[in-house]
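REQUEST ID: PR-0412
SUBMITTED BY: lab tech R.K.
PRIORITY: routine
TASK: structure prediction, single protein chain
INPUT:
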Amino acid sequence: KRALENIVQGRQYYKLLETDQEAAERYREDRMVENFQRSYQELEETHRTDIMGIYGNAHIVNTGYLNAEYYMAKQLKESYGEKLHTADLT
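STATUS: complete
OUTPUT:
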């Protein structure tokens, strides 16, 4: 089920990208945040555990790319504060 949801999200992203790159990037970052939060909440309810995600650099640091105002890690930091740790592995 979740894989199908992600496929739909991907299709929507590429559809938006055809006409509005900024809206597409915002949509993508927002869906990535929602997907991460959903997985984290599901695990936290039963295991009270840490979760790790591996994402491209543009999603974890402000690179000045189109998503500078709403990149994924910035949104997650607003929700999780000091619980969130990021590292640039490049």
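NOTES: The chain has a mean pLDDT of 90.
REVIEWED BY: pending
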